[in-house]
Amino acid sequence: MKIYKISEFADEIGVTAQTLRIWDKKDKLKPAMKHDNGWRYYTEAQLEQYRDTVKDTYRKKIGYVNDVDSHSHQMSLIESYAANEDIEIEYFIETGRHYELSELKKVVGQMLDGDIEVIIIERKDVIFSEILTVFLQIAESNDIEIRCIK
């Protein structure tokens, strides 16, 4: 098992060593080991646990709209749904006609990175047909809920 010095661990999780010292004092994140000289050490298990906690805390809920002619209708349906469910969402409005140049490609990247928790769409056919099966597979394997509101 890998052991991290405080500066290495701080780099891995994107904070400063000083932040880790403060978290230690506040019992937010204690080091696995602390030497008599005050040096703090963290483990690989702590890194994984931290990343899992952060990932669950910061995963997004998004609304995806793809229909240039009626996107305002889709948007209002998704906005109403989100308001009724009392959830805040980020919108991706598709303007591209091909996957390679699409907003959906950005969404898929975020899905693969584990950044998305829920995707709200009007109906499944707003997803490019050539990647729908793969899209649904990625969602399933990354524990992403797809909510079709129609």
UniProtKB/TrEMBL annotation:
One of its GO terms (molecular function) is DNA binding. The keyword Transcription regulation applies. PROSITE patterns: HTH_MERR_2 (PS50937). Signal peptide: none annotated. Residues 1-48 form the HTH merR-type domain. The keyword Iron does not apply. Keywords: DNA-binding, Repressor, Transcription, Transcription regulation. CDD domains: HTH_MerR-SF (cd04761). Coiled coil: none annotated. PANTHER family: MERR-FAMILY TRANSCRIPTIONAL REGULATOR (PTHR30204:SF69), REDOX-CYCLING DRUG-SENSING TRANSCRIPTIONAL ACTIVATOR SOXR (PTHR30204). This is MerR family transcriptional regulator. It comes from Macrococcus carouselicus.
